From TrEMBL:
UniProt cross-references to Pfam families, sorted A to Z: Polysacc_synt_3
TM regions (residue ranges): 12-31, 85-106, 118-135, 147-171, 177-198, 218-235, 296-315, 362-382, 388-409
Keyword Iron-sulfur among UniProt keywords: no
Annotated membrane topology: Multi-pass membrane protein
One Gene Ontology cellular component: plasma membrane
Protein's recorded name: Flippase
Cleavable signal peptide: none
Amino-acid biosynthesis found in the keyword field: no
UniProt keyword annotations, A-Z: Cell membrane, Membrane, Transmembrane, Transmembrane helix
Location of the protein in the cell: Cell membrane
Length: 451
């Protein structure tokens, strides 16, 4: 059962992340050629804002719902679902108020008047995405990922279809029309998610305030973690837009987009590790954390390292092929961001494994510290070094966060940051013997028996 879970859902999640990155990359490839550098910079800044708000809102309930639903009985599942729905509605209302307040200020700060209108339109997406996130949590808690796969792919694919239509037919598009395309795509994604989860949607008639409080007290830290984490990942682009220009933010985003191609195994492993580790820790205790963490990070590093090396060596032709000659200033940025992504598996899996163990408070303070460091270093380095300062500032902040996290894991769980590299080294012969060598042996046996 365990091996089947990891194999099946691992393949689903890796496939989803491959397609998500492929669709996102394809959209990026066409948009960067269809929009001016100023318009693309506006689109990047807009996506940074909505990603921060959406990730933070999901962080309030997502991890708590998966954790509690995965081990609850049927009566409690109904109460949890109702409590979560109530919390999603309330946070969405708060988000709408925040957007109405900050929209004009952001437009003025970035000299991009379209952003205010785009944020007003995106209110519809926030309402729909709250429902979609709850449906995905219900399915994930039941250790299923098929509906999540198809709904997310539909959301990405429909948007890609619109961008492709404009690119190949040379139809005029703009940032407002792109926002309308996102509204339509998430509407279809919700219908697909409902089709896969409606049998599991059990809702109580009354709000159980015990579960509202329990989810909130668990989620307040994961909310802070999600908010701080997404801030740490996008604040550099937002600060470039304010301190330099929209075009500087767009150039930096090109490097980040290419680096994100290497993030597929990290995201996939984190998605399947969290619900599984929540169950394993509840049964076996915290002694299982060491193995789960070191092994999962090792597998990610084994998959990540060859890709990072290749992109680093061929950074210049990669930029030219993907973004064209207008973005040559992204080449040095790409090399620096690639170094940052080697530390990403340690941080991402640390968050997943400790959240499973209920150590959300440490995650919260760690990510807050990281965010503060990213803001401070970016402000200092951008002022002194320009666009490349954002890459150096983020790398330095990530390295300090890595050191703090590994000190904590070493102290409380005896985790050695070098052990993942041992697992990474062993991954290659294990993979060969398990999947390639076995097939060769079976082929030889069939030939002998046939002879």
């Amino acid at each position: 059962m365990s091996s089947k879970y990891w194999l099946k859902n691992g393949l689903i999640n890796i496939s989803q992340n491959v397609l998500t990155v492929l669709f996102g990359f394809s959209s990026f490839y066409m948009l960067i050629r269809s929009l001016t550098k100023e318009d693309y910079g506006t689109w990047v800044l807009f996506l940074s804002v909505v990603s921060i708000i959406e990730m933070a809102r999901n962080g309030l309930t997502q991890d708590a719902v998966v954790k509690y639903l995965s081990s609850a009985d049927e009566a409690d599942k109904r109460k949890i679902n109702t409590a979560t729905f109530f919390m999603n509605v309330m946070t969405t209302i708060i988000i709408i108020i925040i957007l109405l307040i900050i929209g004009p200020w952001l437009s003025a700060s970035w000299h991009a008047p379209e952003i205010n209108t785009m944020l007003h339109l995106y209110i519809v997406v926030f309402f729909f995405s709250g429902i979609l996130n709850q449906l995905n949590c219900i399915e994930q808690a039941n250790l299923n990922f098929t509906g999540i796969f198809y709904s997310n792919i539909a959301r990405q694919g429909i948007f890609l279809a619109y961008v492709s239509f404009c690119f190949f037919t040379r139809a005029e598009t703009n940032v407002l029309l792109l926002t309308y395309a996102q509204i339509f795509s998430i509407s279809i994604a919700i219908l697909i998610a409902i089709g896969y989860t409606y049998r599991k949607i059990n809702i109580a008639k009354k709000i159980d305030w015990f579960w509202v409080k329990k989810i909130f007290h668990f989620g307040k830290y994961t909310f802070g973690v999600s908010l701080s984490s997404i801030l740490a990942g996008s604040i550099d682009q937002m600060m470039l837009g304010s301190l330099l220009s929209k075009t500087a933010s767009g150039s930096y985003n090109v490097a980040v987009r290419i680096t994100n191609l290497t993030d597929i195994p990290t995201t996939a492993m984190a998605a399947i590790l969290y619900p599984k580790s929540a169950i394993k820790i509840s049964k076996e205790g915290e002694q299982s954390i060491k193995y789960l963490y070191e092994r999962s990070v090792g597998v990610i590093l084994a998959l990540l390292l060859p890709v990072v090396i290749l992109i680093y060596i061929f950074a210049e032709p990669v930029i030219h092929i993907i973004a064209g000659n207008r973005y040559e200033d992204s080449i040095p940025l790409l090399k620096i961001t690639l170094l940052t992504c080697l530390l990403s598996p340690y941080g991402r899996q640390c968050g997943s494994i400790l959240t499973s163990a209920g150590k959300t408070k440490f995650n919260f303070f760690l990510v807050v510290i990281t965010t503060v460091l990213v803001i401070a270093f970016n402000f200092l380095f951008i002022k002194n070094f320009g666009v490349v300062g954002a890459a150096y500032g983020t790398l330095l902040a990530t390295a300090i966060s890595f050191a703090i996290a590994q000190f904590y894991l070493r102290k409380y769980y005896k985790i050695n940051p070098l052990n993942p590299w041992i697992y990474a080294y062993k991954f290659y012969p294990e993979f060969y013997l398990t999947y390639i060598g076995r097939k060769k042996m079976q082929s030889c046996r069939s030939q002998l028996s046939g002879g």
